[in-house]
Design brief:
Layout (H helix, E strand, L loop, with lengths): L1 E5 L3 H11 L6 E6 L2 H10 L4 E5 L7 H5 L7 E6 L5 H5 L5 E4 L4 H24 L4 E6 L2 E6 L3 E7 L2 E6 L3 E5 L2 H7 L4 E5 L2 E4 L5 E2 L3 E4 L2 E4 L2 H11 L2
Parallel strand pairs: 1-2, 1-3, 3-4, 4-5
Antiparallel strand pairs: 6-7, 8-9, 8-12, 9-10, 11-12, 13-14, 14-15
Length: about 230
């Protein structure tokens, strides 16, 4: 799991680096004291996990988080407790208040690692993964290998499957949490099943006769997965 640290305080970066070193499954690939520099890096080299300070010059951690793919896990770090409510609005994994202890840091990282392990176990143990999609008063049991892509429209998510469409009330993040790793977000309103992709260009994903948009903010992460 690749991670970066973004904090304008050098001592805070050094502390987090020492904590990350305790976790062999996390590879710290870069640190930044400027949110804009971090975004420039992430546009080309997406990571799995971000330790992100909220109160920074030029661009706040909250603003930066909203520019990143929903698949990027974020752990906010800050000295100001009043930012807690705002941080949860962007569905962060956790919120760490400085000074950060190793115990509290470990709790936050464990949340990320447990979710990743759960997804990997599902994929390893099931040739066909099934998810539940609530639609009105009914709940559909859907085989993920039959899903081509998902489209968000307002409060509703449409699952475009090979032989049917299912509409449920959920967010992009809720959908990503229950889908296996071969599903990635390509646009603020679209998620695709990479196993169904046969061709793509810089702005579109083609699945059968369907054309799914791909925005610049998600393209680097999508290309990385498609080219594995």
């Amino acid at each position: 799991m690749k991670a970066i640290i973004v904090d304008d305080e050098p001592k805070a970066i050094d502390l987090l680096k020492s904590y990350v070193a305790h976790f062999g499954t996390i590879e710290l690939v870069a640190t930044f004291r400027n949110g804009l520099k971090a975004f420039e890096y992430l546009s080309k080299e997406p990571v799995d996990l971000l330790f992100l300070d909220i109160n920074m010059p030029h661009i706040s951690g909250i603003s930066l988080s909203k520019m990143l793919p929903k698949t990027t896990k974020i752990i906010f770090t800050t000295a100001y407790s009043e930012h807690a409510v705002e941080s949860y609005e962007v569905e962060a994994v956790d919120y760490l208040l400085k000074p950060i202890s190793l115990d509290r840091f470990t709790q936050a990282v464990s949340k990320v690692l447990s979710k990743k392990a759960a997804k990997q176990e599902v994929v390893a143990n099931n040739s066909t993964t099934w998810i539940a999609v609530k639609s009105g008063f009914e709940t559909y049991r859907v085989a993920t290998n039959k899903i081509m892509y998902l489209e968000k429209d307002g409060n509703y998510m449409t699952y475009y499957c090979e032989n049917e469409k299912i509409i449920g009330r959920e967010t992009i993040q809720q959908a990503l949490e229950k889908l296996p790793p071969n599903f990635v977000q390509t646009h603020k309103s679209f998620i695709v099943n990479l196993d169904k992709v046969r061709r793509y260009d810089s702005s579109l994903i083609f699945i059968d006769s369907h054309q799914i948009p791909m925005s610049e903010s998600f393209s680097a992460a999508v290309f990385k997965e498609l080219e594995k």
